[in-house]
């Protein structure tokens, strides 16, 4: 009996040690398309980070934030020209599990791990098949979230078209522009390739991909500069997931976009300049 008690005690202590030794992964994420997540679809980024955590035996601790929160300094300001570590990465997150374009001003705030190629597309309602070029956006209404590549690309396009031939661009901090387009409150929207595939797949009779804008992009996730170990693990994860046709990442992409990650990259390569 005494031996059994000793064994039970040792097993219990081993369980406590394992719990203490388990690595913690603190990640922040934003709402998928600025909407409430149904239980079966949390969003591809959340499912990918959970898969990453499971493969690396980590306990994932999520925090839901707004897009602008990702870049705010200690005073709650977003200053694109300044170099600083965002407040969230100092206190709450080791990684941002949300797709964002690798651009200079973001690289002044954190490290980034490339995930896949990117491109921005203009989306219209299905009855606007006549819209095939940026010149045909004259006088139309659109909106995008500030401090996103979508917003900045639309701004650049508007400047290129000129005041007389431009369109009306408004800020929409909460996201969900696809819903506004479907409700005819906007005439067109801009989406990253993955988002464009998802909404057109979901609303194939109502929406269409019109044409790409801007330059080729690289999409990735942000990682705290203090977590070089995590950065290396994420790089390895991305590489392994891409190379394995039956990987969890390919499964997740198939679920949300109708194509695997491998197929997605092949499709996108056809639009690259």
Write a short abstract of this structure.
The chain is α/β, with parallel strands linked by helices and 273 residues long.
What features would you describe in this structure?
- By secondary structure, the chain is of the alpha/beta class.
- The chain folds into two domains: 168 residues, D-Maltodextrin-Binding Protein, domain 2 (3-Layer(aba) Sandwich); 98 residues, Periplasmic binding protein-like II (D-Maltodextrin-Binding Protein, domain 2), CATH 3.40.190.
- It contains ten helices and eight strands.
- The strands form two sheets. The protein has a six-stranded mixed β-sheet with strand order 2-1-3-8-4-7, with helices on both faces.
- Helix 2 packs antiparallel against helix 9.
- It starts with a helix and ends with a helix.
């Amino acid at each position: 009996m005494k031996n059994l008690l000793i064994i039970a005690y040792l097993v219990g202590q081993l369980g406590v040690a394992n719990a203490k030794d388990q690595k913690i992964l603190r990640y922040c994420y934003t709402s998928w398309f600025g909407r409430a997540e149904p239980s079966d679809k949390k969003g591809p980024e959340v499912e990918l980070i959970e898969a990453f955590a499971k493969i690396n035996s980590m306990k994932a601790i999520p925090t839901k934030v707004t897009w602008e929160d990702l870049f705010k300094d200690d005073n709650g300001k977003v200053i694109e020209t300044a170099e600083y570590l965002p407040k969230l990465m100092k206190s709450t997150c080791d990684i941002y599990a949300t797709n964002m374009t690798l651009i200079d001003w973001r690289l002044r705030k954190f490290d980034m791990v490339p995930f896949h190629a990117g491109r921005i597309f203009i989306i219209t309602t299905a009855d606007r098949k006549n819209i095939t070029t940026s010149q045909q956006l004259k006088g139309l209404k659109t909106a995008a979230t500030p401090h996103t590549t979508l917003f900045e690309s639309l701004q650049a396009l508007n400047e290129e078209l000129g005041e007389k031939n431009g369109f009306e661009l408004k800020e929409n901090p909460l996201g969900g522009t696809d819903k506004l387009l479907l409700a005819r409150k906007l005439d067109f929207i801009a989406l990253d390739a993955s988002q464009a595939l998802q909404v057109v797949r979901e609303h194939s009779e109502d929406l269409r991909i019109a044409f790409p804008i801007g330059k080729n992009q690289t999409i990735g996730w942000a990682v705290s500069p203090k977590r070089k170990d995590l950065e290396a693990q994420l790089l390895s994860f991305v590489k392994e997931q891409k190379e394995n046709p039956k990987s969890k990442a390919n499964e997740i992409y198939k679920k949300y976009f109708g194509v695997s990650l491998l197929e997605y990259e092949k499709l996108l390569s056809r639009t690259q300049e």
